[in-house]
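R.M. (postdoc): so does anyone remember the format we settled on? I'll just put the C-alpha cells first.
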C-alpha cells in the first residue's frame, strides 16, 4: 500500500502491482506514520499531517542543514576527497575507501573506464552490495 494523494497523505490508499488501479481503503494510516518519504520528521495524527521539526518538536520549523546538523548553519561539514589508483593484482575484493557513518552528498566518479566493478559493504553486515545484486561475503 502507498499514499498517493498529497492532500490525503494520512489516508490509506493501495495500488495494484498488476493493474496499477488505486483503491481508497476508507482508513487512516496509523498515528506516527511519516507523512512523506521526503520529510523525515512530520507525522500523521488522526488523519492529518502534523509538522515536526528536526528537533522532534511539534510545530517546529527547524531543519537539518547540508551537514546534517539540526538548525545548523552549514559550517560543520568536512569534505573528504581521495583518489584510488591501485590495480588489483589478483581476483577478489579490494578495500578502496571507508565512508563514515552519517556521510552526505557522496560522489564517486570513475575517471576512465576499467573492468572492475564497484561494490559497497556495510561495516555491521557481511553482505556486499554491487550492481549484480547482494552477495554474502
Amino acid at each position: 500500500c502507498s499514499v498517493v494523494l498529497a492532500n490525503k497523505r494520512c489516508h490509506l490508499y493501495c495500488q495494484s502491482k498488476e493493474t496499477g488501479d488505486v483503491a481508497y481503503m476508507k482508513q487512516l494510516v496509523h498515528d506516527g506514520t511519516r507523512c512523506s518519504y521526503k520529510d523525515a520528521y512530520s507525522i500523521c495524527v488522526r488523519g492529518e499531517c502534523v509538522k515536526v521539526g528536526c528537533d522532534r518538536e511539534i510545530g517546529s520549523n527547524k531543519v537539518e542543514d547540508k551537514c546534517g546538523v539540526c538548525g545548523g548553519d552549514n559550517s560543520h561539514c568536512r569534505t573528504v576527497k581521495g583518489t584510488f589508483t591501485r590495480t588489483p593484482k589478483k581476483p577478489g575484493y579490494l578495500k578502496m575507501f571507508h565512508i563514515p557513518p552519517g556521510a552526505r552528498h557522496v560522489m564517486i566518479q570513475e575517471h576512465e573506464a576499467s573492468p572492475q566493478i564497484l561494490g559497497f559493504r556495510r561495516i555491521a553486515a557481511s553482505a556486499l552490495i554491487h550492481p549484480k545484486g547482494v552477495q554474502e561475503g
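R.M.: ...and that's the designed sequence above, right after the C-alpha cells. Also worth knowing: The chain has a mean pLDDT of 81. The chain has no helices and seven strands.
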